[in-house]
Write a structure and sequence with these properties.
194 residues; mainly beta; Lipocalin; 1 helix; elongated
Length: 194
């Protein structure tokens, strides 16, 4: 009996709610469209602290400040002094023959008014965004005699040996000007106006 009553009440509820109509309220929305910053965009930034493979670990938080206004068409989409935050994604320690290396990932930008936008990017280098990682100095130099055909003289030439020294740590100095490259599009719905 209780089940039949429950089913009867549940079927009558939509008819009762339908009879009390709600007013149709339309909100005035501003005429604003979002902006997409395309993948591969470079953002000029300045480093705010020393970042070193010697004193920092993977996951170490980093901060950069935008040095120029970045415009898309006539809209200032990333104003000067916007802060970019990220962390050291990977560190390779120095070894014999190779200097230390690190890769820095950027995860968000914060406008000067405190509004945050998630981003995906890296601190840019031409070496697949890896800072450092080059060959270390030769351990010793070898003298070689080289015959020059044009002047018919023999000169001594010094070249590095195949043996290498222990690699050195990689450091990004505070105040260094760098570039951030965006690895995916960023949807901007917030811009600052003066």
């Amino acid at each position: 009996m209780k089940k039949i009553l429950l089913i009867l009440v549940l079927t009558l509820i939509p008819f009762c709610v339908h009879s009390a109509e709600l007013p149709n309220v339309q909100l005035e929305l501003r005429d604003y469209h979002g902006i997409i910053i395309p993948e591969g965009t470079f953002v000029p930034v300045m480093n705010t602290q020393e970042i070193s493979t010697q004193s920092c670990d993977e996951g170490y938080k980093v901060k950069f400040i935008c040095t120029n206004d970045l415009f898309l068409h006539e809209t200032n989409i990333i104003p000067k002094d916007t802060e970019f935050y990220g962390y050291i994604e990977k560190i390779n320690a120095p070894i014999i023959g190779t200097n230390a290396a690190m890769k820095i990932k950027i995860t968000k930008m914060v406008y000067t008014d405190g509004y945050e936008v998630p981003v995906r990017g890296y601190l840019y280098t031409s070496n697949d965004n890896v800072f450092g990682g080059g060959m270390s100095e030769p351990a010793k130099y070898i003298r070689m005699a080289q015959r020059q055909q044009s002047v018919k003289k023999t000169t001594l030439q010094i070249r590095g040996s195949y043996e290498r020294k222990m690699g050195t740590h990689t450091t990004i100095a505070p105040g260094a000007n760098e570039l951030i490259i965006l690895t995916s599009p960023v949807w901007i719905t917030h811009t600052l106006t003066n």
